[in-house]
Structures are given as C-alpha cells and as structure tokens.
C-alpha cells in the first residue's frame, strides 16, 4: 500500500511538472512582440496589428474567453496556425505545447467565435445599397468592359472525411467526399456571400436556387435595377444571372461577350485560389477530419479571415497554385433546366436581358 502511494505521488508530481512546463511556455508565447513580423505572418497568416484587432473583436463581440492556463491570444494563435497549415491538431498542439485535446478545444472555440453573427455580418456582406453596387459595377466596367456586373458566383469543393450519415450526399463526381460551397466575390476577390450547407453531390444550380442571394437578385431586377452576377454554364440563364454563350460564332458580338465574361469570372477562381492557399486546411489534399457541420463552420471561419486579410492589405502567399477547374465539378456541364412554365418564362426573360447586354458592348 505504501508503495502504491509513492507511485501515485510520483505520478501526480510528474503530471504537475508537465502542466507547469506547458503553462510557462504559454506565458512566453503570449507576448507576440518577440516574433519577427514576417515569421508571424508566415505562421499565422495575419500581421500582429490585425491579430490584436481580431482578438479584441472576439473578446468584445463573442463569448470566447481565455483562462489563466490558456489566454485568449494562445487560443486564437493555435486556431490560426491550424487553419493556415492544415496540419493535424496534434502537430499544431505540439508547436504551442498543447495537448491534442486542448488544441481541438481551442480550434473549435475560435471557429465558433468566428461564426458569430456579429462577425459574419461585419465581414461577409452582400452590397445592400445602390451606392455600394454602383462602385462594384464601375470597377467591373473599368477592368473587364462589362456593364452591370456586381459579382461573380461559383462553387468549390472542400474535401472532408467520409461522413457516417447520408454519405451519398457528400460523394462528388470527382470521386471523394466534400462540401460543395457556393461563393460570390467582387472585383477585389472579397467574398460577399457564402453557402456551405450542401454536400459535394449537390449540383451548383440547386445550391443557387436554395440560396438567399437568388431572391435578393430577383428583387433588385424586379425593382428596375439592371444588375447581374456572372456564373458559368452550370447555372441557369436568368435576367439577374449571366452565363457564357457556348460555341459563339467567331468574330461575333456573342464571342466578344463570352470572352469578356470568362475574363471577368476569373475573379472567383482567383478568390478560391487565394482562400485555399492562405488557409491551407481547405486544400484538396488536406481533408477536414470533421463532421460536415463542423467542416462548414471551419469554411465560414476561413472566409471571414480571408476578408480580414484583404481589408488589412496583407500580401498573398507566394505559393498560390495556377487556377484550374478541378474543384468545380460542374463548370463544363449544362444545368438541367426545369420544364415549369415559370422557369421557361425566366429563361426567355434571361435571354432577352442577355441580348440587351450584348447590344451594349
């Protein structure tokens, strides 16, 4: 019995020493001033001033709090490092001298905080006023010589592990499980709208018809405002959504329109490339080992951080991949049109608006 007490006491002392070592290390990490700025950006993707403002916003607007053992700054640094590297949590935790369980808890708490409605509405917002939409239209007109454009829309796949429920809804036609995430961005690659609720088997056009931005664009058109989004051929032609003209005659106005359409729509492809390179946990070869709902929250958190980085004018990572259509399964396929009278009428009106746009080129 005496020997057991001695062994228990030795074990408790060993545990206490490990915890004390981790606590002391965290205390040294709390002062980010000691880390060179370039190294800080490399590890956490934000500069120090932006990081401090983010911590303050999380403290003021969300329920995220630190503790004596793990200050709020350490939680945020741990989450940023995980999102930026896409490394397994145990590896990230070792870099902060945290256990795997503690790392997982920190990542989830910070991701939940970044999904707070206050932060989401602050950083991801579709243009609400005529003035805001006019500024975006002017930039698309200036850069790509296309009038009326207020954004580009497309979907990208975020790889996840095989879910235990409704597995078929997440298995995409590329042969892996994913979320099919719809985004709308402006000319500066700022994300203005995101829908991360659907699995990889869902068609782009279905996500579009189920999103909040579709009725909003419809309302703008019905109010007499001639503005539209640019989408690929996987989307239905509508008066408020312009798609390319396939096999347009050479030298025609239709070919000119399609050329400018394709050039302008590279914004969304470059947006995907920058987002996934800066926050590498979203890359195809990383695979999020989470339930789809948690993976959706992680995707939204990365989009918030993407816009924060753009607002801070942070330079893009040096290893942005060449844009490809690999993530977008449906870019080369025509959407399946419904045969309802309402959709036929909208298609006719959409083609009429497309002809009007072409006539203005």
Automatic annotation (TrEMBL):
Compartment(s) of residence: Cytoplasm; Nucleus
Protein name per Swiss-Prot or TrEMBL: Putative nuclease HARBI1
GO cellular component: cytoplasm; nucleus
Functional summary from the UniProt entry: Transposase-derived protein that may have nuclease activity. Does not have transposase activity.
The family this protein is said to belong to: Belongs to the HARBI1 family.
The organism of origin for this protein: Parnassius mnemosyne
Required cofactor names: a divalent metal cation
Residue span, DUF8040 domain: 39-114
First-listed, main subcellular location of the protein, grouped into a coarse class: cytoplasm
Gene Ontology molecular function: hydrolase activity; metal ion binding; nuclease activity
Bias type Low complexity, positions: 331-341
InterPro entries found in the cross-reference section: DUF8040, HARBI1-like, HARBI1_animal, HARBI1_dom
Keyword check for Hydrolase: yes
Domain of life of the organism encoding this protein: Eukaryota
Region annotated Disordered, chain positions: 321-343
Keywords of the record: Cytoplasm, Hydrolase, Metal-binding, Nuclease, Nucleus
Domain DDE Tnp4 residue range list: 153-307
């Amino acid at each position: 019995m005496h020997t057991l007490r001695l062994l228990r006491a030795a074990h408790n002392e060993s545990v206490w020493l490990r915890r004390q070592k981790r606590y002391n290390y965290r205390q040294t990490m709390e002062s980010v001033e000691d880390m060179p700025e370039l190294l800080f950006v490399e590890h956490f993707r934000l500069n120090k001033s932006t990081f401090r403002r983010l911590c303050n916003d999380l403290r003021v607007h969300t329920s995220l709090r630190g503790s004596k053992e793990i200050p709020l700054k350490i939680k945020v640094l741990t989450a940023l490092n995980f999102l930026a590297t896409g490394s397994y949590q145990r590896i990230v935790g070792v870099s902060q001298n945290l256990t795997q369980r503690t790392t997982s808890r920190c990542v989830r708490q910070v991701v939940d905080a970044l999904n707070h409605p206050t932060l989401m509405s602050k950083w991801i917002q579709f243009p609400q006023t005529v003035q805001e939409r006019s500024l975006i239209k002017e930039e698309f007109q200036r850069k790509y010589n296309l009038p009326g454009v207020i954004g580009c829309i497309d979907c990208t796949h975020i790889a996840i592990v095989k879910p235990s429920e409704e597995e078929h809804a997440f298995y995409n036609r590329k042969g892996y499980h994913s979320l099919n995430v719809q985004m709308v961005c402006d000319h500066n690659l700022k994300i203005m709208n995101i829908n991360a609720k659907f699995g990889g088997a869902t068609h782009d056009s279905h996500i579009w018809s189920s999103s909040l931005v579709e009725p909003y664009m419809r309302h703008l058109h019905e109010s007499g405002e001639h503005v539209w989004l640019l989408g690929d051929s996987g989307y239905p032609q509508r008066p408020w959504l312009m798609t390319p003209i396939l096999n347009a005659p050479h030298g025609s106005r239709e070919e000119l329109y399609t050329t400018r359409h394709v050039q302008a729509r590279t914004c969304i492809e470059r947006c995907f490339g920058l987002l996934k390179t800066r926050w590498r946990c979203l890359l195809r070869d990383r695979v999020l080992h989470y339930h789809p709902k948690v993976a959706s929250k992680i995707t939204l958190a990365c989009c918030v951080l993407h816009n924060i980085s753009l607002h801070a004018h942070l330079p893009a990572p040096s290893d942005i991949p060449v844009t490809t259509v690999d993530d977008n399964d449906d870019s080369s396929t025509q959407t399946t049109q419904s045969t309802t009278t309402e959709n036929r009428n909208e298609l006719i009106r959409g083609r009429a608006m497309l002809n009007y746009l072409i006539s203005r080129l």
